[in-house]
Structure formats: structure tokens, C-alpha cells
Design goal:
Layout: E1 3-9, H1 14-28, E2 31-34, E3 45-46, E4 51-53, H2 54-63, E5 71-76, E6 80-81, E7 90-92, E8 98-102, H3 117-135, H4 154-159, H5 166-172
Helix pairs in contact: 1-3
Amino acid sequence: MKIISLVPIGRIERDHLELLGEQLASRMQAACLIQPQRQNGEFAYNRARGQYHSTEILKRLVQDPHTESWRILGVTDLDLYIPILTFVFGEAQLSAAAALVSTHRLRPEFYGMPQDPELLQERLLKEALHELGHTFGLHHCSDYLCVMSSSHSAERIDLKQAEFCTACAAVAGL
């Protein structure tokens, strides 16, 4: 049986993890297990940027034992970055088992809009599928509706669907 381990990092709400697990299970034909141990991302904090280095969190995520897992998805509320970008919504190991997503910049209220739990959950699902797609070796897709299209803003996430296009699904074996 294929298992996706959802690993909470920071103060991520359990409701988000439970709903994400249900959504991913149906789309990825895999069981989703929420890991009971909450991880702390403070080791990856960069004081000068006021953000958390996603690559460092991803490295630590891979070190923790999840032997039964087909894929590992860290889910956090931390504001993530990589040195060459101002921020990232997530990061993944290309053609490997682990990925990371953050709700921090997916929240409408981050942009001065009212809270919208449904929109947040939709964005979280799309970004989780996107980062998991990278673990299957998928690169960014030119089809703007495909979940693998590049997202440099929340508006771009809103445009795409929570589905892989036919070509990406075939490559990923989904």
C-alpha cells in the first residue's frame, strides 16, 4: 500500500492536515497518515530575512524515519525561502520522496483580504500536489491549468486546477 506521511511542522492546524490527507488520498490513490510528532522548524530560521530556509527543513524531514512511507510531505505555517528567491510556497526533492509546503503565504489575510478557509485549503491542496509532482520527477508544466504550472504568486495558484494535465499524469504514473 502506498502511504503519504503528512508531517506537521510548527503550528499547523490539525484540521488542515486532516482535510489535506483526505484530498490527497483520493487524488494520489494512496493512504495519508498524519504523523503524531510535530516538528520544530526554528533551526532553519534566518534572523536577517525573518524567514525559514526551506531546504534545511526538507533535509531534516528526510532524516526522520518514515520507512513505511511512499512519500513524505511536511506541512507548515512558517514563511519559507530559498536564498535565490524572496519566498517559496514549498520545495521538493526532484525524483525523490520528500516535499514541503507552507500555508503562510497561501492565506488570503496575508494579502490584506478577509479569511477564507476554503480558499486556503484549495491553495494548500494545489501546492501539495505540485510539490509531490516534483517528487515524481515532474518539472514545471507550460499548461497554466495544470497543477505543475509554475506559481510565483497566490493569483497564479488560483488559476490552476488541482489536477495534473494528461501529459504530467502519464509521466508521474498517476
